[in-house]
Amino acid sequence: KIALELKNVKKVFGNTLVLNDISLSVPWGKVISIIGPSGSGKSTLLRSINGLESIDTGDIEMGGLPFMFKNNNKIKKSNKKLQVLKIGMVFQSYNLFPHKTVLENVMLAPLYHKKNKDQELIRIHALAMLEKVGMLIHANKYPHQLSGGQQQRVAIARALAIQPSIMLFDEPTSALDPELVQEVLKVIKELSNEGMTMIIVTHEMKFAFEVSDRIVFMESGQIIYNEDPQQMKKTQ
Ligand code: ADP
Ligand code: ADP
């Protein structure tokens, strides 16, 4: 069963074809890593999947249902089932609110979105997500009291707090000092072991080969390879 399907997606910025006929299938529970040079369209691809960018032609389907793009960016989720399917995203920069505690940062989105704002339930779930990323003991600290790796783990907990069906990571370790990279990759690896469907843009090749079911190479807005890393090892 397919979680996410991109069919002949094209996106133009000015005169540049930033996404040039992208087709990609992501089955539920699978991990896809996207690698490629800077400017090849990786970030735009993730942002299109998350509705942060509109696409010019093609289709994006989630759980077999088409997204409908409206007003040049917003995804209109007309279908009830599609409304339940949420996408969590983690960016290179963690962008935590500096004047809110770790716990408050994680609770913010669910408090904002939930119609029945059961604060206590949201708090308990947020604490569980912080435990999952190993940050429960820092729940009452402020972002500036944390390392970059710790802040990024909070950002992952924040994305998980909306209970997403799919997680997108846009170079989650690129802004980190080298010694902090592994603690973040470890959390992402654990999510993959739990069966989370994920698309990860990364330059961490060893990690990508370890966790991914497919490795997608992008260049100039196109997918030039889409391979099973196990097969790639065999043919090397
Ligand atoms: P990558 O993530 O692979 O580095 P991006 O998706 O960020 O690539 O960018 C792909 C191309 O699209 C680049 O040439 C970039 O300059 C351009 N681009 C990205 N966002 C915009 C935008 N909002 N307006 C115009 N051009 C953009
Ligand atoms: P990344 O590191 O993910 O590739 P960039 O630094 O390329 O991101 O872009 C950061 C932001 O600037 C994104 O929101 C992207 O859409 C926008 N952007 C990138 N290139 C351009 C561009 N040429 N014109 C306008 N906006 C751009």
From TrEMBL:
Localization terms from the record: Cell inner membrane; Cell membrane
Protein name: Polar amino acid transport system permease protein
Signal peptide per UniProt: none
Keywords recorded for this protein, A-Z: ATP-binding, Cell membrane, Membrane, Nucleotide-binding, Transmembrane, Transmembrane helix, Transport
Stretches assigned to the ABC transporter domain: 4-236
Entry similarity comment: Belongs to the ABC transporter superfamily.
GO cellular component: ATP-binding cassette (ABC) transporter complex
Taxonomic lineage of the native organism: Bacteria, Pseudomonadati, Bacteroidota, Flavobacteriia, Flavobacteriales
GO MF terms, alphabetically ordered: ATP binding; ATP hydrolysis activity; transmembrane transporter activity
